[in-house]
Amino acid sequence: MLAYGTKIVGGVTPGKGGTTIESGQPVFDTVRDAVEATGATHSIIFVPPFAGADALWKRTTRGSSWPSASPKGFPRTTCCAW
User: Could you tell me the pTM of the whole model?
Assistant: First the structure.
């Protein structure tokens, strides 16, 4: 994504807040922390299918207004439900 010019301001992985990814962007424990620290308005969700609905719900209720989610095997109708 970075190679194509996408601006990535950080990532979210519970329990890994305070670390960074290989390209230097910070990792946050929660979506709320990430939105408050960076002002992010969009999110891309990479999770296994069993965690997809929960990840979309957290994104919706924690301040990131534009999701993009495409977990393998996850029904598209569920991705668009919110």
Answer: 0.65
